[in-house]
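Hi F.,

I've been meaning to write this up properly since the lab meeting, where we talked about keeping a consistent format for the predictions we share between groups. The idea is simple: the sequence comes first, exactly as it goes in, then the structure tokens exactly as they come out, then a line or two of notes. No screenshots and no reformatting. I'm using this chain as the first example so we have something concrete to point to.
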Amino acid sequence: MSDTWWVDSREILEEALRELSASAAAGLDTEYDSFRYFREKLCLIQLTNEKHTYLVDPLAGFDLSGLGRLFADPAVVKVTHAGDNDLRILKRDYGFSFAGFFDTHRAASLLGDRQLSLSTLIGLHLGVRIDKKRSTQRSRWENRPLTAEQLRYAAEDTSFLVPLYRKLAADLRERNLEAEAQRLFEQMCAAEWHEKRFNPLGHLYVEGYETLTEDQRARLARLYRWRFAQAKRKNMAVFRVLSDPELIALCRSGETTPAGLVGSGALSAEKARRLGADIVPLMEELRETE
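Output, unedited:
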């Protein structure tokens, strides 16, 4: 594994970019939190060439616009694995444009591979076994400092991308698939980020819906819409505003005070305190319209 540098200033980034821009290829990955946030939060950018892995901290508050030069430079191949969301989020947050990209997931799929996880492809094509823990992937990447396990995971994510690119690129050339692969890579680079959209029928699929009365179902429809609006406004995952079981409990409770919501078991005391000012007026309105 290449030497790892932590990049948290413009000066260090410019030094990294001088080296990366002189490379034939560089692996690229990001760590973002889509589990806890309504709008995915970019927490780390990883770039690797033959010598170094650079872990770029987008939360450190410095100018990252220099990355745009590298991402738009067709002379340096940027290697991703299933990089769609990585590029969408980078484009959303910084307005970057992309050229000279190679995606190992798309390339392997075009070549006929069926097991397309990065660890599987590295084992199949490079003969190296890596162990990627899902718990680390879901860990709190916005926390600083990152743990030793997070740093290892992040660096390993890009360490094998360039060797894998070389192997897959050779296979594409041999099978005369380069033009089709390039079309797929350009399609990935052109993708745009889109915000989550509200599904007005989503409440019908909440577990427990069938057990509710007609009035309670109407209440659920309103609460379901309210939860989405709150999640969007506060940039929180919807389950962190109210879980599906909490939605059902609120519909059955019909209580309109924080004490009543806690006493009925619909909400915990902590959640009633946090949401009370917003949810109590809604519960009162629902009671009045029934």
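Notes:
The mean pLDDT is 95.
The radius of gyration is 24 Å.

If this format works for you, I'll send the rest the same way.

G.
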